[in-house]
């Protein structure tokens, strides 16, 4: 049974947590004690209903303010598929939480309040989903009950979003009108919108095609990549000559006998042995954690990248990429940070900001010298040591990077690497 990891995004009060609660409730994926707990928490509400949003809004501050702050994860399954739901905050102050939560998702559900249509956070979250390479989008036009289940309102919002989507290069977008509060088109088709002939949300989630997604996590990507996490040298009497390189294969396939290159040093060897779960195997594919043994005794340490010899990534000290800035302190040209790609870390400086993206129009703003919180921009970085990477659009696992503040060790930016800078 395959797994779909999806995120809900949208503006504050668009109903993201309620939608997830309704999805879990109507699909009978809530345990009895969980239901009893939220029934007690909402006892005495004027309308007598249960607040399903409390299934995900677990922090006291979230419940008191009625908003989502932290990223919450919920797990459920149907007979068709397993699911991991990522409930991300809608408030602009917590955009960094959404960016981190969305980084490994295959689908994004972008909620739009039927009363307000496409707003700034809709544009921001859609752009972030596009930059992160999420291949499938669902535009959930929520709160249709508050606009009389109007087909005209739904059609107008679809037209608005379609214009926006042209600038995102989005290929798979599905529009669904719904009321998360009442359960319309969440798990079951709604009798209140007979004019809508598409699937309910759950039916779409169960059937969306995942096999052709660009991340190719099952090893169909030919470019073998293993970031070295740990060099294993027991140095015991029984294992005196043992030397293994442990890590998680983030793309492609490695087989015993394959020629490999270690980057950034460029040293070469062949794979003599592969271990997984204390057993020898002949092949390691993406998502497996393994130990590689090489035929030659070469110098390898944590942060190095073992790659297929015939599929080399880019190795450079001058790189460019799209940046999501996450810190209240401004990023300025000349600022210095630590850049981490996989297990590799190196110091870097910001050489230039070619442009910043206007959230309203997606147009390029040039001649930018600094970036504020939640800015999205193209940046050029100079690293102290060469880094090995693939373009993010080809391999998100070896093309995604983070910027870390050297003094506080806080992650301040997410970078989707694009290539070598001129």
Please render the helix and strand layout as text.
Blueprint: E1 3-10, H1 16-26, H2 32-41, H3 60-65, E2 72-77, E3 82-87, H4 95-102, E4 107-113, H5 120-131, E5 136-142, H6 151-166, E6 173-177, H7 201-207, E7 225-227, E8 230-232, E9 244-248, E10 253-255, E11 259-263, E12 267-276, E13 279-281, E14 283-285, E15 289-294, E16 305-308, E17 314-325, E18 331-332, E19 336-341, E20 344-357, E21 364-365, E22 370-371, E23 376-389, H8 396-399, E24 400-404, E25 411-420
Parallel strand pairs: 1-3, 1-4, 4-5, 5-6
Antiparallel strand pairs: 2-3, 7-16, 8-9, 9-15, 10-14, 11-12, 11-16, 12-13, 12-15, 17-23, 17-25, 18-22, 19-20, 19-24, 20-21, 20-23, 24-25
Walk me through the structure.
With 422 residues, the protein is α+β, with helices and mostly antiparallel strands. It is built from eight helices and 25 strands. Strand 24 and strand 25 form a beta hairpin. It is globular and about 75 Å long. About 5% of the residues have low confidence.
Quick tags:
Elongation Factor Tu (Ef-tu), domain 3; 3 domains; 25 strands; alpha+beta; 36% strand; 6-stranded mixed sheet; 422 residues; Rossmann fold; single chain
Q: Radius of gyration from the CA trace?
A: 24 Å
Main β-sheet description = 8 strands, antiparallel
Which class of the largest domain in CATH terms? Alpha Beta
Compute the number of structural domains.
3
Q: CATH topology of the largest domain, what is it called?
A: Rossmann fold
